[in-house]
Structures are given as C-alpha cells and as structure tokens.
Amino acid sequence: MPLYLKQMEVGPMGNFVYLIGDAQTREVALVDPAWQIDTIAKIIQTEELKLTAALVTHCHFDHCNGIEELLNRWDVPIYVHKKEIEFTQKLRHANQLFSGFPKKETRGVDSGDKLSVGGIEITFLHTPGHTPGSQCFLVEDKLVSGDTLFIRGCGRTDLPGGDPEAMYNSLTQKLMKLPEDTLLLPGHNYSDNASSPLIIEKKENPYLICDNLDTFLGLVGRPKNREKIL
After folding, report:
1. Mean of the per-residue pLDDT values of the chain
2. How far apart are alpha carbons 175 and 126 in whole angstroms?
3. pLDDT (tens digit, 9 = 90+) per residue, 88-112?
C-alpha cells in the first residue's frame, strides 16, 4: 500500500504534527493534535482524507492542546501509552496544569502494539525519559519521534516525569537498534532540516554517540533530589 505522510509545522513553539496513513484509501491518523486544528481540518478536507485516529507522543501541552477541538470535529479514538495516562492522573492530583485525556475516546497502548490505518501499519514504541509514557511511532522506514529524539539532540529530562537514565535506555536500547536507513521525523523544528537519516544521527548526534551512561548524564544533567510525582 502507498504511504501517505505529511509533516506540518504549527504553533509558536515550532511543533511538527503529522498525518500518516494510506494514500489509496485516504484514511489517516493525526500525530500530536495541537495548535492549528482548523488548518489541519482544511488539509484533510482539501485532500479528501478520512481521519480515523489521533496518536499522542506525550502529554505536554504543546503536543495535545488541540484534543478537545479535534473531538468536536471528529469522533475518533486517541491512542496514548498506558504509562502516560497514569502519569497525567498523578499530574492532576499534584495540581499540575493538565486535565487528563478524555476517558471515552482514549485508548491505552503498550510498546509493540500496532495500529492499521487503511493498509498502513503503525507500531507503537515506548520511549520513556522525557515523560514516563513518551512513545514514538514507527511506520515502514520512518520514525516519528515526538520529544524523545531530535535532529542532533534529544528531549529534556529535567521536567516533571523526566528521567535521564530512562532516556539513555530508550535511545541506546530501542532507537539506536533501528535500521540505519530509518528516517527520523522529530516533534519540533529545531534544526535546519525537517528530517534526518538515523545513520547520520548515529554518527553526529552527541546524545547517541555517548558510549556509557555517565557520559550521557554529563550532557543532559544528573537526576536531582526533588519531590517526585511518579
């Protein structure tokens, strides 16, 4: 089946959102519904697409602030990693600024689960570190990485729920083991390029070329003694 994939930059923080699906059936999923849902809706209408799902990399506001507006337009399920659902419940109890995912539409997933969008298969990869339930999406030879891996960078680990050791394991034990011809599609436009082959990242991304945890912690910062909400 021919793959449909569109990368769009939205909002004031350089977010990338994605439409991924089947170019033949026109069924697509939206990755990280945020900011300009009206613009995304126009693209879906103009290109005669059918939105069947939304996928969330993690719960931070800039990646999911459009969920309510999305659900006002389309009745679709929202796929979130199970640990991120648990994390948002703890955020809410700790009076953090997140109201949680809507119970009716939210579907909890595990690493390795797959979703078919038309004839296209998307694989969920649990990559904790930025948040406990951060996840990436692998479709064919492309990796939509959210705030786990950037071009020449990686996600912050000093925010609530961040875990530098978990980030190191996600990068080295999961993403670094993907085929070198995998194309990285990050969650933010933080580079001169909108995508990067993983083989280049393995050679030039300073967070991927660390040969041990201690070196990695020297780059991202060591865990601090702070009250945890995890």
Report:
1. 93
2. 10
3. 988 765 545 566 799 999 999 999 9
For the chain, domains (ranges, CATH) are 3-220 (3.60.15.10)
φ/ψ (deg, to 5) at 109: -125, 160
Burial class (CB in 10 A: 0-12, 13-18, 19+), 8: middle
The Cβ of residue 35 has, within 10 Å, a number of other Cβ atoms equal to 21
| Global confidence as pTM | 0.94
Segment 197-201 mean pLDDT: 97
Extract the tokens encoding 159: 């925010």
CA separation for the pair 173, 98 (Å, rounded): 30
Note the Cα 210 to chain centre separation in Å.
Answer: 23
Kind and range of the H or E run holding 53? strand 50-55
